[in-house]
């Protein structure tokens, strides 16, 4: 077995670290625009886009917080503070451990801020040190960066390692109600944000969000099954069999990433050659993969439950066109990449095998998104 730690890389260089965070600031901005284009094309519903936008903002806030934490990496701050660890082989994103540490820091953010000088006081001390000692106030800069980090954590709305399920009512009242449940995880096996959306029918007596027994059980069940290695078919069938009065009609999963960059990741295959040949300037040396899986129920069958009753069980549709529906465990799988103009031009010229069916979203320096 390979050691995952061997795939991790610490960004110990100050300029490289700041370029990395600026890159993701750009990428997360484009993600929202790509989702809007997919909505306009009909491949995403308005509700899906709203949910995605919520989690994309969380990803952006997480990167902003981490950029404050590691703002002075590589500088003599008087303390050993380490560097951001990224998965340089599989994902290009920060490692799962970084998010666990961040969640722990968030629990203690108020206590840290209570014992720190305010922003105005720190800036005043910096000016005094620059004027009186004619020296760069590195340690004060570090103190300010940590204060800003904890303030970001206290502000909330970040993308955490676990984002527990939320539920929205769609339609229906007595007898049969429709709900949309959504949640997200930072998959520790592949170090990528993964977003889930489940639409279901509820035939229980008590509305699911108000059911003190079922709703906590549903939340625990869904979080326990939120593993990228599990097929959607496995997740949906397990849910269907665990809850007799909840009927999963559509399950969708979005994988945000991997991010490839010639400067930061050790990718292999055609993407490596494309990025190397493109020789893009800083800020444009990247490609982000985006994968959407969807499983839909196509019919219902009645099965016996005890001596005198029956329950509904869903029959899920598998992809009839690719011939790999059983292998993928999904009705439909859409793969896309988001990339700047220069890498796209090289990709179009090289036209490597396997990329013909991959959607390409090309972003211009001005932020416009074009779909190919």
Question: What does it look like?
Answer:
Helix content is 40%, strand content 27%. It has helices at 14-41, 46-69, 96-107, 109-114, 119-133, 138-155, 214-224, 232-242, 270-278, 325-328, 341-350; strands at 8-11, 84-87, 162-171, 177-187, 192-202, 246-260, 287-305, 309-317, 332-340, 359-363, 369-371. The strands form 2 sheets. Strands 3, 4, 5, 6, 7, 8, 9, 10 and 11 form a 9-stranded mixed beta sheet that branches. It has 2 domains: 4-155, no CATH class; 162-371, no CATH class. The longest helix is centred in the N-terminal third of the chain and has 28 residues, at 14-41. The chain has 372 residues and is of the alpha+beta class. Strand 7 (287-305) and strand 8 form a beta hairpin. The chain is globular. The model has no long low-confidence stretch (mean pLDDT 89). The protein has 11 helices and 11 strands. The two termini are 39 Å apart. Helix 2 packs antiparallel against helix 6 (138-155).
Topology:
Blueprint: E1 8-11, H1 14-41, H2 46-69, E2 84-87, H3 96-107, H4 109-114, H5 119-133, H6 138-155, E3 162-171, E4 177-187, E5 192-202, H7 214-224, H8 232-242, E6 246-260, H9 270-278, E7 287-305, E8 309-317, H10 325-328, E9 332-340, H11 341-350, E10 359-363, E11 369-371
Parallel strand pairs: 9-10
Antiparallel strand pairs: 1-2, 3-4, 4-5, 5-6, 6-7, 7-8, 7-9, 10-11
Helix pairs in contact: 1-2, 2-6, 5-6, 9-11
Count the beta strands: 11
- What letter string, H or E per element, gives the SSE order? EHHEHHHHEEEHHEHEEHEHEE
Number of helices: 11
Major beta-sheet overview? 9 strands, mixed
Mean pLDDT: 89
pLDDT < 50 stretches:
none
Radius of gyration: 24 Å
Overall structural domain count: 2
Helix content: 25-40%
Content of β-strand = 25-35%
